[in-house]
Write a structure and sequence with these properties.
Largest sheet: none
Structural class: mainly alpha
Distance between the termini: 76 Å
Oligomer: single chain
Number of strands: 0
Shape: rod-shaped
Radius of gyration: 20 Å
């Protein structure tokens, strides 16, 4: 029983220290989607989050070139989260803008 517990603990420790590499495309996709949403309706918050995502992506790529894969992966996760938040904020601004336009169209 002790051996099973020890093996399970070692497996969990191994999982905790292993980081899956996140490809640049995982960040670029949401960034492009956020930019596409903002073609008609701008969101300052989305713009800021896009800038954070780009900055974190640049830092992640620099860290990867320096061989600091673990830190690079963490920055890539931050960049992805910022890009996804920018996408959500931009989509919200677009939906609000379309809603306002629809309401104005129904009420002259």
């Amino acid at each position: 029983m002790k051996q099973v517990m020890l093996i399970a603990m070692m497996a969990l420790a191994g999982c905790a220290t292993h980081y899956a590499k996140i490809p640049n495309s995982a960040v670029i996709g949401p960034m492009k989607a956020a930019q596409a949403y903002q073609t008609n309706y701008r969101s300052p918050q989305a713009d800021l989050q896009l800038q954070y995502a780009q900055d974190n992506l640049d830092v992640a790529n620099s860290l990867m070139e320096s061989g600091k894969e673990e830190r690079a992966n963490m920055m890539m996760m931050r960049a992805r989260a910022d890009a996804e938040l920018a996408q959500a904020l931009a989509r919200g601004a677009t939906l609000r803008g379309e809603n306002e336009r629809a309401v104005k169209g129904n009420h002259p």
